[in-house]
Specification:
The protein has 95 residues and is mostly helical. Helices cover 68% and strands 0% of the residues. 1% of the residues are buried.
Length: 95
């Protein structure tokens, strides 16, 4: 795909979204206003907290994998898991 063809449309969408956020709540950051449509109660600060915690575990894991030179066992990806427990985990992480 050619990003240069898509860039003007993307820029227009971003500009319109920023204007929309300012009309909804001019006192809050645009991202905080707009993310409310998708994740109720979520903020950029909370997302930063979540990803900082993820980074704490992922960076050493990737380093370890690179040093060992062998990929981790991925059999767990093929398992069957209880969706209710998955939802509970997601909720506990997000809140």
């Amino acid at each position: 795909s050619d990003y240069s063809k898509f860039k003007p449309s993307l820029q227009e969408w971003v500009d319109i979204s920023k204007k929309k956020a300012a009309l909804i709540d001019p006192t809050s950051a645009a991202y905080d206003v707009l993310v409310e449509d998708y994740e109720k109660g979520m903020t950029a600060a909370r997302i930063d907290e979540i990803f900082a915690k993820v980074r704490e575990g992922v960076v050493p894991l990737i380093k370890d994998i690179r040093e060992k030179g062998t990929p981790p066992d991925a059999d767990w990806l093929k398992g069957t898991y209880d969706t209710k427990k998955q939802a509970e985990l997601c909720e506990s992480i997000a809140l």
